[in-house]
Amino acid sequence: MSNGSLYTRIQNNIATVEFFHPASNSFPSELLARLAKSLNELSENEEVYVIILKSEGDRAFCAGASFDELVSIDNLVDGKRFFLGFANVINAMRKCKKPIIGRVHGKVVGGGVGLVSACDYAYATDKAAIKLSELTIGIGPFVIAPVVKHKMGNTALRELTLNATKWHNAYWAKEKGLFADVFDNTKQLDESIDDLASKLASYNPEAVQKMKKIFWEGTDHWDKLLEERAEISGELVLSEFTKKALEKFKK
Question: Which residues, in sequence order, are CB contacts of 90 under 8 Å at separation 6+?
Fold first, then answer.
């Protein structure tokens, strides 16, 4: 439980992947690796036509990468490996043959914004404010920047990145294309997700898979690109500026 949990259930050709971590649904490396592995397996599962990605609880959807792991990094190899966690998940999501629907019930920070951006479709509640706070600790959202830009555009990426302390509300995120719709409560959220997932599961799976390839055209180089971005972040996290910022934040 200290490293979080990940559960997958399949019903009526719909796979629901649910993750949890006691620290606001943040992701330690082990949990990210399990998520990437699960998505890769579901991509090849012929019984699955659509995937719903959600997190447990009624507060934060995802607080990004594990802070405890981040502050413990003391060499470039471990730094790059740490940031490759979200890179591997994003690449698994974009290459997954099945459409992924994001269920976003609460706040989203850092790598969590990348996770939602990598969903093919996402619904949210009005509590789903988003923030990219990486610059405040001396690094940047290098790994997730390509997928955020792909989903929301360069202007939104700049605004989120440079105004690193500001929460942008769910309606702003909808306007920028991150969310397809925003609901007042989780009951409406779940009803809409169930309806969409059921419809997608009834369509010709071959047609849906071919459409997904079109959605992600132009991203074939991301395996290499995100690895390069992970190395940049791994170098920056070792800088004196970031070490001091992390220590201050920790206190």
Answer: 114, 115, 118, 143, 144, 147, 222, 226
